[in-house]
Amino acid sequence: MTTPSAPLYDVLRDRLRRQLPTALATVVDGPDPGRKLLVTPDEVLGGLGHPELDRIVARDALAELEAGRSGIRHYGPEGQTTPEDLVDAPTLSVFVESWSPPPQMWIFGAVDFTAALSRVAKVLGYRVIVCDAREVFATRRRFPAADEVVVSWPGPLFERRGSQLGQRDAVCILTHDPKFDVPAVQGAIATRVGYIGVMGSRKTHDKRLERLRDVGLTDDELARLMSPIGLDIGARTPEETAISICAEIIARRTGRAAPSLRDASGPIHG
Amino acid sequence: MRELLDDIDRWRAEGKRVAVARVVDILGSGPREPGAAMAVNDVGEVAGSVSGGCVEGAVVGEALGVLHGERGPGIVSFGYSDDEAFAVGLTCGGTIRLFIEALDW
């Protein structure tokens, strides 16, 4: 715990404006509700009432930040977390709210589907990066919604920045061109990215699988591919296809089978 | 919270005091995720939302209570299934728990 030089809210506000990863832990139930700990990958500010509690909550808050999750956690007054230690001890409820940088969507292939997908992905809050090796097609003017348009083969982009990708991020490969698809899939599979979708008909998909096996990818690795990409909603246009892809990404994240709510049961938001 | 920053800055520059209500927990079906937030200033102006519009009116009353010193920072629950529940409920049948506090930190 350190005493911040500025009020905690000012530090929080400046970090949120700059989209820096930040977690705020607040005692919401316990002897002194409202106490706070602001946790970033570099420093911990404020305090919850006991140094050991601060240490444990900071550790947990960093994990929540990594996962992009917010929620309530329970602790003993000195940071106890095991059920035996919490018996007969007064517990504190701590709300850990985390603000992670926006998730990324990397889209390979400068095609019409890419323009529509980048627009829909922006609505969902993604930072969108479009990549194609062909300079004439990979232009900002064709993809005004994208945050970045990169003229490159997939390999170098993954080498430079693949380590940034995590569970919340998505790679969508829309090229249809084996020259480009194969290195893009290879690059994506080498990362921890949460979603890899590859466009193409079933026939294209089967041929692509052969090529990917030829370059040494295993069945386990290939099982990560969502290919053909998207949910089966009968999408035709680039815009409809973009919705089908984004809906699949959401359903994979939440673990839902994606039927109509009318035809399913159970809680809608559960 | 991020979407409230501009309003909060403006209100504070005008010398107004601000309370913040954040969704900290959802039981059952709830319209917004933990972290959804609204801010209320001491003249009752509002920014943001914490539900689909079901409970915002009641939250303003609670937030003004905090700003006027009638109650301290703490959790307020809204919903049908909770003993602490207020008369105001969520149309989707769930319960949300909000933490309401003055922005004095």
TrEMBL record, chain A:
Transmembrane regions: none
Classification via Pfam families: XdhC_C, XdhC_CoxI
Domain XdhC- CoxI: 17-76
Leader sequence segment: none
XdhC Rossmann domain: residues covered: 105-249
Name of the featured protein: Unannotated protein
The organism of origin for this protein: freshwater metagenome
UniProtKB/TrEMBL annotation, chain B:
InterPro entries for this protein: MoCofactor_Util/Proc, XdhC_CoxI
Domain XdhC- CoxI, first and last residues per copy: 11-79
Any one Pfam family match given in the protein's UniProt record, by short name: XdhC_CoxI
Protein's recorded name: Unannotated protein
Organism: freshwater metagenome
